[in-house]
Every structure is written in structure tokens, then in C-alpha cells.
What we know:
Oligomer: single chain
Order of helices and strands: HEHHEHEHEHHEHEHHHEEEHHH
Number of helices: 14
Radius of gyration: 18 Å
Helix content: 40-55%
Amino acid sequence: MGVPLRQTVTVARYLMTQRLRGREKFPLIVELEPLYACNLACAGCGKIQHPVATLRKRMPVEQAVAAVEECGAPMVSIAGGEPLVHPEIHKIADELVRRRKFVYLCTNALLLERKLSLFTPSPYFAFAIHIDGLRERHDESVCQEGVFDKAVEAIKAAKHAGFRVTTNTTFFTHDTPDNVRAVLDFLNDELEVDHMMISPGYAYEKAPDQEHFLPVEQTRRLFREAFRGGGRKRWRLNHSPLFLDFLEGKVDYDCTAWGIPSYSIFGWQRPCYLMSDGYVSTYKELIETTDWDSYGRGRDERCDNCMAHCGYEPTAVAATGASLRESLRAFASALN
């Protein structure tokens, strides 16, 4: 099973509208970062390396909502930092849901059970909980024991309360095809989460661990072997079929980082939430003043090993919408 049907239909309608308007660059998902503070210090993330004064900042509700409305994207991924540290994160989520945006609140789940009552279940809202492997692997990734068990209990509590629950799993060089299958089987069959997102790790410049980010060919081998035997058709993966083809190396794409723009406490970040080449105050300025042709594999060495969803999922979605065959394939995936 692929992307939820309601979301698939909404995005398809949105893509058609953009084409009719003749827009070449438009947002698919906003990566909203209302703070950088976090209650974990994961080896593969460099966000908490910011100065203390930056880590204390919290984006006001009105500012967050205005940024999303300005660009008009149908989906919002609320990240950070750890969003549940933000004292008004539930208000940001509520306002976006009220505007019928599909909201994914990304969290390590350490605070989720305590804050669950602040949120309201909705088909437009989901918790996206980080699960980077089974118990030992996940706790190693987040550099703290016991986090996996707390996340699992939080998933159960959120599902019991009627929330949509998705997961987000990042893979690195020490992961194997068996690791990939094991964690996806666990999430799919035992925890029965609604959908799962997967991604190869990106080499954040400030991340403590710089040795385990996957290069392109190793990424392709990992997912090709993990998906062998048709497993990806059984798992409830929240990705377009073409993006999964991309991870396997069956197709290749150019990066379209403008499709998942990042808005943080500093403003619109160019070119994406993985790289910080400056900030601007409006989405229009981001689109019109960023030299998009200078980014991507073969153009910027920082992009050479990137296969992250923020650059390539929107390319795959656009390719899906431009092909009747692939559109039918995506709808069939959503219905299964």
C-alpha cells in the first residue's frame, strides 16, 4: 500500500492546477522547522550544533502558518529539532489542519505520551515517529538507551487514541538489507503503523558521525536487495512508486529541491533543509533568486551522494503526474 488515497487525490489535483497555471517551480511539501532545540543528540544530525541563543528560539504560531499559506503547498512536515519541545506546537498543527493541509509532525516520541492530549485526531494529521532500526540499532543511532522502547509505547498510545501514525526511518552504511526488511516488517506487521517513510542518510556537515553516510551506489544496492521478492508492495510505504524505483536505481532523476522548501526560524533556507547557503524572507524570493541549476549531483560536490527525499521525491511525484501509466500505478498502490 502506498500514499493514502485522500492525499493522492489532493496532490494529483494540485499538480494539475500548477500545470494549468504554467508554473514550473512550486512546492509539494513545506519542511517547517519552528525550532532547532532537541532532547536528543543523534550522531547523524547536526541541528543542535547551533549556538545556545539559536536553540532557545521558538517560531510564533502566526509566522509558521503565514509561511505555509504564502507558498501554498498542500503538505507540511513539521520537524526541528524536536517539535514537541515547542510550547505551541499543537496550535501550529491545529491551524494547518484547519486549512486542510496534510500535516506530518516528526518526533522522536520521548514527549509524545505526555503531550498527546493537546492534539486532535484527523485524516489530515499524523505523527511521524523516528525509528531508525530495531532496539539496539535505533538506540545506537540516537545515542541513548531506552529510546526505542519509549517510541514503541508512544506509537501504541497514539494509535489507541485514534491518531494516524507514520514512521520515518533513515539508513546508513552499517545497515543491511536484512536490517531494512526487519524494521519494516516490525513496523508494518507488529506495530501496524499507518505508513512508513524511508531515506538514506544525508551527510550533514555538522553531524558528529561523518563515516556512515551512504554513497549513491551503496544506497541502490541496499534498497535493491531489501526490496527483492516484492516486499515493497506489501509494506505500507508513504512514497510514490517512482521514488522507490529511484532508490533501487531503476530510474534516475535531477534534484528539484524547490519542491520541498524549508522554512525555519531564520526564514526560507536555500537550497533545502539539508544545506544552508543563506536565507530569504519570502518564498517568492527563494524561488526567483536561488541558482537551482548549480545544485544536484555533478554540479555541487555536497550533493554527489545525496538521494534524500527532499530533492528527489518531488521529482518522482512530478514524473508520476506527467505520465498516465505512472498515475494509474500510484492510484493502484494507494488502493491496495
